[in-house]
């Protein structure tokens, strides 16, 4: 949502359009009901974007009764031009709802649109006062120094990957099967190719093994940035014993009443302020955290290689031999403390 919103800022500036504060789509699997204003400080955002684009909280009365003309650019590829493809619809209908193009090269935006996008992502978006206080309380409670680990091994994540795993508990197997729906796992040669391409999420046990290969001490303080329903977590905790979660460190009715967006906001806040950040996937949160950490000058960011793990284990490597090979696969990123997810950015980094 944060990524799409930042994209929306850049697009609004490209089109010289007024931006209406968005409404979050409901996510049934998160029991989600929070809105933009439940997560972000709206007034601060509008103030900080002054001079970049015009932002309004609500539609004018003469427009509010209309349904927006929907423009879906999500599947557009190549040299996609918003001005050429979308501006005519905006001029015709005056009010449009847009889904940004996933593959759009933002570094090709003109300077004024880049400036608006960067200001939105790195300067104007901050949590609400109450949520930031809760996040600061959580950060303070974590033993220091600490590593924030974004571990993705929830039933819906595994089901979406279409991967199968050996040795999972019956409870995990049942949860994955319930989440699969029509998305059946790959089998045979297709399953092997899929895994070799790095498409299968690392299990907590595999994550712990790679940590050991990278010589991360087993007494390291680890904050687990993860959603509800994480499976097989004992595979990590049995080796790395100083693992803490937000539900263990925070209490109170306000935390218990939080939904997916607000809980994810806590993980985001802690992760961009952690001493080290490690992710087992390369999803939207990971990209946003890595970018913000780079902007803040915190370069101790590493993304574990699912592809390397799959390729090396497929060769029959195990034990010390596998650990050595995994260290070599991650050596440059780990030693340099930068990770593989920090591409050249057109925003003005501080360091």
UniProtKB/TrEMBL annotation:
InterPro entries: FucosylTrfase_pln, GDP-Fuc_O-FucTrfase. Pathway: Glycan metabolism. Pfam families: O-FucT. GO terms for cellular component: cytoplasm; membrane. It comes from the Eukaryota. Belongs to the glycosyltransferase GT106 family. This is O-fucosyltransferase family protein.
């Amino acid at each position: 949502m944060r990524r799409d919103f930042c994209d929306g800022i850049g697009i609004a500036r490209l089109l010289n359009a007024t931006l209406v504060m968005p409404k979050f789509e409901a996510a049934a699997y998160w029991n989600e009901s929070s809105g933009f204003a439940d997560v972000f400080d709206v007034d601060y955002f509008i103030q900080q974007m002054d001079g970049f684009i015009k932002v309004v909280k609500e539609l004018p009365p003469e427009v509010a009764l209309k349904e927006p003309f929907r423009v879906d650019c999500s599947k557009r590829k190549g040299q996609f031009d918003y001005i050429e493809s979308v501006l005519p619809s905006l001029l015709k209908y005056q009010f449009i709802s847009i889904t940004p193009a996933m593959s759009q090269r933002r570094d090709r935006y003109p300077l004024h649109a880049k400036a608006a996008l960067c200001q939105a992502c790195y300067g104007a978006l901050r949590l609400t006062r109450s949520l930031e206080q809760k996040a600061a309380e959580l950060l303070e409670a974590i033993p220091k120094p600490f590593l924030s680990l974004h571990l993705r091994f929830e039933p819906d994540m595994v089901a979406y990957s279409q991967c199968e795993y050996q040795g999972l508990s019956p409870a995990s197997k049942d949860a994955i099967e319930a989440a699969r729906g029509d998305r059946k796992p790959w089998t045979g040669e297709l399953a092997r190719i899929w895994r070799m391409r790095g498409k299968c999420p690392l299990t907590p046990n595999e994550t712990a093994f790679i940590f050991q290969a990278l010589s991360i001490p087993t007494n390291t303080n680890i904050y687990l940035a993860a959603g509800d329903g994480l499976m097989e977590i004992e595979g990590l905790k049995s080796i790395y014993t100083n693992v803490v979660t937000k539900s263990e460190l925070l209490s109170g009715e306000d935390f218990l009443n939080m939904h997916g967006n607000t809980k994810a906001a806590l993980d985001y806040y802690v992760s961009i302020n952690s001493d080290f950040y490690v992710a087992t996937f390369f999803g939207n949160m990971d990209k946003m955290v890595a970018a913000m950490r780079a902007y803040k000058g915190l370069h101790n960011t590493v993304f574990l290689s699912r592809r390397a793990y799959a390729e090396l284990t497929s060769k029959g490597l195990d034990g010390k031999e596998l650990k050595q090979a995994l260290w070599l696969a991650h050596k440059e990123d780990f030693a340099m403390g930068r990770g593989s997810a920090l591409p050249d950015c057109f925003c003005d980094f501080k360091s």
